[in-house]
Amino acid sequence: MPPKSALVLFSGGQDSATCLAWALERYERVETVGFDYGQRHAVEMQARLAVRAGMASVLPQWADRLGPDHIVDLTGYGAIADSALTADRAIEMDARGLPTTFVPGRNLVFLTVAAALADRRGLDTLVGGMCETDYSGYPDCRRDTIDAMATALSLGLDKPVVIETPLMALTKAQTWALAERLGGQALIDLIVEDSHTCYRGDRTLRFGWGYGCGDCPACELRAVGYDQWVARP
Ligand code: ZN
Question: pTM for the complete prediction?
Fold first, then answer.
């Protein structure tokens, strides 16, 4: 039996917005989950609602497929996982060579909570925007980590847990191209206008690729990818 339903880990950023469109193309029923872990970019929580609302008008069948949104309060975890995203610290490299924006174990926690929610909601598949090509050096974004999580969750829940990561091998430019293939210019416009990526939660400046401070690592990655996609042959 092919999977018919999915739970998308949906932060409201470019990557998870593209993953949501990817899931809406494939599955008959799609629900979303967002995690509030006390992140600096609480503006993301607003962006995710705008992106969800906009998805329904990109393609009519997507409106029928898009089910409820779930918000899970993980502020207790955020308090443990002190990092530059959740505390007032500079964005820099630590002794491991990891940026201080790294929240230890974040995707492991998110996937565990998502698997529990998917089980309760009767959803077949988890979909996440993890990416190991131009990722920011986060070890929990690697496909090896995701595969190990899928194995652990399948054992722990005593049923197969499938984790799809459609962006894993894509560059940011290829992620824009995927969005265009899935939803055309309407989806590109929605992602540019309403998705939010900036670590600083800044939406005062508007660039071709959307809103942000323009110089944090997340904005730089998004800008470079967009420029490469626009300059495509
Ligand atoms: Zn920024």
Answer: 0.91
